Amino acid sequence: MKRTAINARQLGFFLAFLLPVGKLSELPSLLSGKVGGDLLLPAFLGLTVEFLSLFALFSFTKKTGMGPLAYAEKKNAKLGRVLRVALAAVLLVYSLPFLLDLEKFCNVTFSDTEPTFFSFAPFFILCGFICTKGIKAVGRSADLCPVLFFLPFAMLTVLAFSSADLSSLLPVFEKPLFTNVATFFQTAPFFSSGLLFLPLFDGYHYHEGDEKKIFPLYFTGAAAVLLFLALFYGLYGPLAVSEHYAITKIGMFFPALSTLGRTDLFFVYLITVVLFFFTALPVQLAVGELQKGFQLQNSLLLSTLINLALFFAVLFLNRRYNTVYPFFIKTLAPLYLVVGFLLPLLVYLGILLKRRGQVRVERRNKHAR
Predict the structure, then answer these.
(1) Helix, strand, coil % (nearest 5) of the chain?
(2) Mean pLDDT for each consecutive 10-residue tract of the chain (369 residues)?
(3) Where are the domains positioned within the chain?
(4) Could you tell me the pTM of the whole model?
(5) 8-368: what fold?
């Protein structure tokens, strides 16, 4: 049996317990600001797009025995390496809005006083270490996430249920369909996980029945996101647009907390560990692709240089947050969708058409005999 860097169980855990956490911080307030109580509609559209990219890449890997990047490198080594470097550049750009969000999230959650210049530096030390470990580290992180995500998420949703007014979500389609679709495009980075799937599937090898493990776990994670969004808007209603970093605020209205204090923050801290893994992931994958693209033997120096550059980039961009954040989220949305959604569909359709062509040729040869 072929050894893999990430197996079906780990890939499923990644989809169910690690991937959703990237949608639980800033996305709820962004959706609420655009479409109010209709926020589930663009989110559902985004999750559908995300699943289609997953399905396309999974099917490609199943049919060819390797991921698209490895397949391209096998057919043309030079082209394959160029594609890896290009994808790494996109991943680094893609990581920046999530890094900016994480810095502000940590300042809100962990800082009782004004954060210092280097308050966010420890994250890049952790990220630099993770980046040297390759795709296997993604699988190991995914193995930890059921404990770090599922129980805290379940507890926070239970705390939120008693105070949430889900009638705030009605009526459905209060906003025009065009507005809901436009909102999906304006929040595309949160659903462009095909960017992450492309390098991840290089480390995965299909085994019979893997789809029965992977797809249900993806749907579990997607359902968790939709449930969270519904509860969040049920708690805050029209005020949701101003409530950033939603995961820190969903459990705070449970009546008993007025006596016990903010014990819900314990669960928030556990989920924050998963958020660290998620935010480091694009950087980690970018380092891996650059290492393969330039055929480097050691990733330590590369990881150090990239994380130092990102650290100073975050410090610089944070001072211009209101200007640069919309640029990364809205202006660059077409780039994320082309690479994270359209490209996976095209490579899948390409291999599908190629296989059908081969079948037709074989049938003609058979009849000719």
Answers:
(1) 80, 0, 20
(2) 75 96 94 94 97 96 93 93 96 96 85 67 92 89 93 92 88 90 95 96 93 96 96 92 87 72 84 94 96 91 96 92 93 95 93 78 68
(3) 8-368
(4) 0.94
(5) Amino acid/polyamine transporter I (1.20.1740)
